[in-house]
Every structure is written in C-alpha cells, then in structure tokens.
Amino acid sequence: MSDMLMKTARVLAIAALMLGSASALDGARAQPAGITRTDLQRHDLSVPGREAFQVRVDFAPGAAFGRHTHPGEEIIYVLEGSLEYEIEGKPPATLRAGDVLFIPAGTIHAAKNVGSVKASELATYVLEKGKPALTLVK
After folding, report:
1. Which of 24, 88, 103, 138 fits 108 for a cystine, CB–CB 3.0-4.6 Å?
2. What is the model's pTM?
3. What percent of the chain has pLDDT over 70?
4. By C-alpha distance, which of 25, 32, 37, 6 is closest to 125?
5. Together in a domain, 75 and 115
6. What local confidence, expressed as pLDDT, does residue 32 receive?
7. Rounded alpha-carbon distances, angstroms, from residue 114 to 20, 41, 71, 121, 129
8. Same structural domain for residues 63 and 119?
9. Residue 100, CA distances (Å) to 60, 113, 119, 122, 129 in order
10. Which structural domain, as residue segments, surrounds residue 41?
11. Alpha-carbon gap, residue 27 to 16, rounded angstroms
12. Which interval of the chain is the signal sequence (predicted)?
C-alpha cells in the first residue's frame, strides 16, 4: 500500500511541476521585454463573480504592450512619464503623469512609452472571476 501511495505522490508532484512550468511560460509570453508588472492587491468584491485587481506597470523607454483585452474594466492612472494608448475605434491618446483613462470591458487596446525615460501606470481592474486577466489579440 505504501509503495502505491509513493508512486501516486510522485506522479502528482510531477504533474504539479509541469503545470507550474506551463503557467510560468504563459506569463512570460504575456509580458514583453521592457515591461515590468508588479501585482499590488487582488480582492473579491461585494458584487458576485467580480474581483478588483491592482497592478503597477513600468515601461522602459520605447517599450510597448501590444493589443489585448480584459474581461472587465481597466482604470489607469499614469504615475510618471508619457504613455500613448491606442484604443480600438479612437485616435491614439498620449497621457502624462497625473492623467487618467477608463477602458471598457473587452475593448482592444495597446500602450507604449513614447518618452525618453521610464513611464509607469497604476492599473486597476474590475474583472470577472475565473477568467484570464489579459488576452492578447493579433
């Protein structure tokens, strides 16, 4: 019996390592060079099926995060630098420190540091629980 338990434990451990490695690879692919995302907080909301998630995103000069969507609203506050946002159906907008932006759920958008110094934003998301926070769009 203990031999069977050891084999089962070994198989489960290997499966967990493989799953963890796959998740890390997915996260690495979603984060372009020159972009650093720092998760600050994530909490369930009083609205069933929703959660709030805050992230600091730092962009090196010239760094860009390509077209993507979120399964909920994104509220952006630019902390420093200059960021250009492309939101589907609207002309590009350049925001500077202190500027804010609201992006509706499911809206395709992209961001790029158009300045010569680091740019940073505080992104607050109100998301549907259980869905990926970000989906890349071709």
Report:
1. 88
2. 0.76
3. 78
4. 37
5. yes
6. 86
7. 35, 28, 27, 13, 33
8. yes
9. 20, 15, 14, 10, 25
10. 33-136
11. 17
12. 1-24
Q: Can you tell me which residue has the tokens 């420093």?
A: 80
Distance CA 4, CA 43 (A): 40
Rounded to 5 degrees, what are φ and ψ at 18? -65, -45
Domain count, the chain: 2
Alpha-carbon distance values, 37 to 17, 21, 49, 83, 135 (Å) = 24, 19, 24, 15, 15
Of residues 112 and 28, more confidently modeled: 112
3-state class (DSSP) for residue 14: helix
Same domain assignment for residues 54 and 17? no
pLDDT (0 to 100) of residue 65: 96
Q: What is the pLDDT of residue 25?
A: 34
